[in-house]
Amino acid sequence: MTASGAICIPLLVIGMPGASVSWLGVVTVALVAPQACVGLVAGALADRRDRLRLVAIADGVRALIFVAIAVASFYAHLSLPVFIALAFASGCCDALAAAGYSAALADVVPRERLALANAWIASASVYAGLVGPVAAGAGLLRFSAGTVLLVNAICFAASGAFLWRRRASEVEAPAHTSHKTATLSHVAEGLTYA
Questions:
Q1: Which helix (H) or strand (E) holds 91?
Q2: What is the pLDDT of residues 28-57, one digit of tens each?
Q3: Which residues contact 155 (CB under 8 A, 6 or more apart)?
Q4: Distances (CA, A) of 106 to 40, 50, 72, 171
Q5: Please, are residues 33 and 152 in contact by the beta-carbon 8 Å criterion?
Q6: Residue of 156, 158, 154, 160 lying closest to 54 (CA atoms)
Q7: Which pTM value belongs to this model?
Q8: Do 153 and 25 meet the contact criterion of CB atoms below 8 Å apart?
Q9: Fewest Cβ atoms closer than 10 Å to its Cβ: which of 46, 139, 178, 184?
């Protein structure tokens, strides 16, 4: 979830007819629950597939989700059940992207620079957490929550397109097996690791 999503989604939920703070809690659970429900499967997929492609797909789907939310908010056609479904789908994409990002770093950064790369990512995450809400708040002063989410969608689309265009030869994809039992064994291994 991006900072703009974290700020705009509650505003959209509270502004819906029939919505209450309880519904905001339901939407928040729909956004966060996939980390627990889908996270281990996403990790197993990231161990067996082209990680950057998984992130690109997740970013592309998140772009579509945020476009759908933004357009529906422009025309006041968002219903709570649809919003909850879109929030859950976004949370699933967040889990998939998080697993792909964390696993892909070792594929694109030489081992001797991995600690530095992790430090840069941690620093960028902290700065994004500081600047993102301010930028979203500034956007909300001038534009609607739907417009701010549309900018968010454009950023996801750009990220997905950039990652998708990476040549497969640039990153060595991990070997994968086609057996469901291998995926289940990876999930079980993740449970024992956690």
A1: helix 80-108
A2: 999 999 988 888 888 888 888 888 999 999
A3: 2
A4: 19, 12, 39, 10
A5: no
A6: 160
A7: 0.82
A8: no
A9: 178
CA distance 192 to 194: 6
Contacts of 104 (CB under 8 A, 6+ apart): 46, 51, 52, 55, 171
Q: Tens digits of per-residue pLDDT, 104-115?
A: 888 888 999 999
Q: What is the CA radius of gyration of the chain?
A: 18
**Token pair of 131, please?**
């600047």
- The DSSP secondary structure of 26-46, one letter per residue, reads HHHHHHHHHHHHTHHHHHHHH
Burial code of 61-88, b = ≥16 C-beta within 10 A, e = fewer? bbbbbbbbbbebbeeeebebeebbebbb
